[in-house]
Amino acid sequence: MSAWGNEYLQGLEDRDTREKANLEIFNSSNRTSVLLNLRREWPIPLGLECSDSTSTGRRRPILTTHEGVPTESLVQTIATLRLDLAEAQSSKGQLQIQLKATNEELGVLKDKSNREGRTLAQLSAERATFATRIRDRDEELKGKSKLLEGVQDEMLALNIQLNMADERCRKLEKENKDLIDRWMARMSREADAMNNASKFS
């Protein structure tokens, strides 16, 4: 999971811990408030309570009604029901608060997810563009490499032809030199012969 996801889950856990602690304080205060309101609303007449004849000396409630006035046990039952209702309403309120906070956080995460989705789409498009350019460049390099190989082969062939031409040129130069030397020797002999002939005439 990404770092922001871990931070989000940790934030939810911290919030739940705080809300549970606050809910316990609220329920305790709410229970006391409900009981006090019921006592003020339905006071228990003195005639409905009596001392227990047992050795404990504790008072016990009379479970009958007197002129339509609720007994203490009925008051306790109503108090319990009202307290349960108050706790249910409190729990509902807490759940509504949590739901609202969760919806807000969900909205934030959706916005972030949408932004990241758009960014991912943009990066994917750029990646596709770069991949196409790289593929085109590879094709271009392959073409240039093939052309370079052709040029190198042609240069090698030209070098071979040049070497053959140089060898032929050297051979022709040698043949030409030999012809000139033979011609010069012949001309020298003819000149000597003419000189000798002129001496005897």
TrEMBL record:
Instruction: Please state every residue range assigned to the domain named Autophagy-related protein.
Output: 7-195
- The source's domain of life comes to Eukaryota
Q: Which InterPro entries match?
A: Autophagy-rel_prot_16_dom (IPR013923)
Give start-end ranges for the coiled-coil region(s): 85-112, 148-182
Q: Keyword set for this entry?
A: Coiled coil
**Would I find Coiled coil among this entry's keywords?**
yes
Q: Which family does it belong to?
A: Belongs to the ATG16 family.
Could you identify this protein by its name?
Autophagy-related protein 16 domain-containing protein
